[in-house]
Write a structure and sequence with these properties.
With 367 residues, this protein is α+β, with helices and mostly antiparallel strands. The chain has 2 domains: 91 residues; 247 residues, Alpha-Beta Plaits (2-Layer Sandwich). It is built from 10 helices and 11 strands. An 8-stranded mixed beta sheet has the order 2-3-1-5-4-9-10-11. It has a 3-stranded antiparallel beta sheet with strand order 6-7-8, with helices on one face. A hairpin with a 5-residue loop joins strand 2 and strand 3.
Length: 367
């Protein structure tokens, strides 16, 4: 597996030269962003490989010295532990990742079962993700939102963008993609006079934000309708037709935006969401056409089912995929989502490693 690092070193050196000296890169902002993302990913691998190689040499030298002087035995033990840690990090970095892991995110939250209580919970989720993102220095932009009568959210679409070039595995999509699915809440609704605990749910959809080069959208494939924005209860909050609905005729995907006052701004926001949905649809189609092993590597954690329960009476949060459980729900809803996210990331990495090792065993056995 580590043999692959040598080819990646060559790619890293080539990218370094290109980023420093190729005028075409500096003239194309989208290309420069993609190359910088790849360069950052490869830099982490090269550094990890250098550290592992150096520790291999140090350990070999310490073993030779220990044969002559037993006092070096303790150093052998320390270096063995350090080499094992470096080996694990390198192995993790070399595991094939989702191609979209370095991308920013379009995150949609929609209320579901439970009426107004579900909308209030959807609002809690929007706040949770916003605070989590802001704590990591990410930029959060509301592309579209439909409030409910009691201050909740019927639906909201956010763009979450990293600043600069994030380290491998730390971009918005790499961390937030496992949030997609049905989130269940158990609590006493504000509308409940008897104090009974009710169960409701909200849905979360997480899409990698597509750049124009990722998805080509033909204007002739779009049907664009305009209408007046409306607030809670259907009351008009705008006297002009500024809201935009875009239908991508070939796929049937429909996107609406009414958050901005300008029709042009709403159109641009809707196109961002449309490109993200088209990219996600293309990736799902590619994954479905791949082998079972490849599908496991692309999507190892089921994100379509009910994934998590937020129990207010017990202040408990439970993730049904990873088994993660903690009794700090108030802190999680305030943005302290890192341990919950880390549990999903770790489970996904373990599944990818297992699939890779199984593939290697199968290849070795067939030879």
């Amino acid at each position: 597996m580590f043999d692959a690092a040598e080819a990646l070193r060559v790619e890293h050196a080539g990218l370094e030269t290109r980023l420093a000296a190729d005028p075409a890169v500096h003239a194309d902002a989208a290309l420069a962003r993609r190359l910088h993302r790849r360069y950052a990913e490869l830099t982490a691998i090269v550094r990890a490989h250098d550290a592992w190689t150096a520790l291999e040499g140090d350990l070999e030298a310490a073993r030779e010295l220990a044969e002559e002087d037993p006092a070096f035995g303790e150093e052998v033990t320390v270096l063995t532990d350090r080499r094992s840690a470096a080996e694990d990090r390198l192995r993790h970095l070399l595991v094939p990742r989702d191609p979209s892991d370095g991308k920013d995110v379009i995150l949609e939250v929609k209320s579901g079962e439970g009426g107004e209580e579900s909308a209030l919970f959807a609002g809690d989720l929007v706040r949770m993700y916003t605070r989590f993102a802001e704590a990591r220095g990410w930029r959060v932009e509301t592309l579209d939102a439909t409030p409910s009568d009691l201050g909740g959210v019927k639906s909201a679409t956010l763009a979450v963008q990293a600043s600069g070039t994030p380290e491998p595995g730390s971009a918005p999509y790499a961390l937030l993609k496992f949030e997609a699915g049905v989130h269940r809440v158990q609590r006493v609704p504000v509308t409940e006079s008897q104090g009974r605990v009710h169960t409701s749910a909200a849905g979360v959809l997480v899409l990698p934000e597509a750049e124009a080069v990722d998805v080509q959208v033909d204007e002739n494939d779009l049907r664009i309708d305009v209408f007046r924005s409306s607030g809670p209860g259907g009351q008009s909050v705008n006297t002009t037709d500024s809201a935009v609905r875009i239908t991508h005729v070939p796929s049937g995907i429909v996107v609406s935006c009414q958050n901005e006052k300008s029709q042009l701004q709403n159109r641009e926001q809707a196109l961002r969401i449309l490109r993200a949905r088209l990219l996600a649809a293309a990736e799902e189609e590619a994954a479905a056409a791949a082998s079972d092993a490849r599908r496991q590597q692309v999507r190892t954690v089921d994100r379509s089912e009910r994934i998590r329960t937020y129990n207010f009476p017990e202040n408990r949060i439970s993730d049904h995929r990873t088994g993660y459980k903690a009794y700090n729900l108030d802190q999680v809803l305030d943005g302290a989502l890192d341990p919950v996210v880390a549990a999903s990331v770790d489970a996904d990495l373990a599944a990818r490693l297992a699939a890779l090792e199984e593939t290697a065993r199968s290849s070795g056995g067939s030879g």
